[in-house]
Amino acid sequence: MTLDLTPDELLSTTRAVRKRLDLDRPVPRRLIEECVDLATQAPTGRNRQRWHFIVVTERARRREVGDLFRRALAAAEGHPLTGDDVRRMNHAPRSTQGVFDGLRHLTENIHRVPAFVIPAIEGRTDRASAALQSGTWGSILPAAWSFMLAARARGLGTTWTTAQGPLEPELAAILGVPYREVMLAAFIPLAYSIGTDFKPAPRIPRDQVLHWDHW
């Protein structure tokens, strides 16, 4: 069964779920397959359909991948925050603090998450031009987001992470992925959500992001 959500509700309440993942309830393979079927209806550049989804559910493999998740987070480096970054992050009181609290909870319990979904795409963009990168990423990100929307509609929770980034070659080796030919785009924990009553997130006002005819 799917949740009774309007399209607008589905789009505005598909949240990053970290604390409210049901760590004790297995996710049926059938539901994951349904989500992948919907994901592959997403747009794909030149109809090349180079996408792949690696799903990890086996207990020992999940523990191994979960350990890598923790090590990768510790090794992650991000761009320095700008003043605008900080202003937007703190637009809603306690919003960003909630993100980091949820990330800590997820990290501590990552080995208990019943399924990991790693969307991937054939063709690497290392040192590629912006044009080539946009075409490649534009052929996997819509599919991954469609997967997350389909999961939400089925009472499942997800969160988009790029934790695999710093240790991508090691994760590829664990999963048997040909690293030189296939790029691991994200690392998505998947579980039933505890409750389904998610709400739209507080965001900065529209007039700060919408531009008509010029910047």
What does this structure look like?
It comes from Actinomadura litoris. This is Nitroreductase. Residues 15-186 form the Nitroreductase domain. InterPro entries: Nitroreductase (IPR029479), Nitroreductase-like (IPR000415). It is built from 8 helices and 5 strands, in the order ααβαααβααβαββ. The chain has 215 residues and is of the alpha+beta class. The chain has a single domain (7-76, 88-197), classed as NADH Oxidase (3-Layer(aba) Sandwich), CATH 3.40.109.10. Helix 2 crosses helix 7. The longest helix has 17 residues, at 59-75. The termini are far apart.
SSE order in H/E notation?
A: HHEHHHEHHEHEE
**What spatial form do the alpha-carbon principal axes imply?**
globular
Distance between the termini: 44 Å
CATH topology: NADH Oxidase
Q: How many structural domains? A: 1
> Care to count the β-strands?
5
Rg over CA atoms, rounded to whole Å, is 18 Å
CATH homology group:
NADH Oxidase
Largest sheet: 5 strands, antiparallel
Low-confidence parts, pLDDT < 50 over ≥5 residues?
Answer: none
Helical residue percent band: 40-55%
Class by alpha and beta content:
alpha+beta
Return the CATH architecture. 3-Layer(aba) Sandwich
Strand content: 5-15%
Put simply, the count of helices is: 8
What is the CATH domain class? Alpha Beta
* Average pLDDT reading: 97
GO molecular function: oxidoreductase activity
Pfam family, one: Nitroreductase
Family: Belongs to the nitroreductase family.
Domain Nitroreductase: 15-186
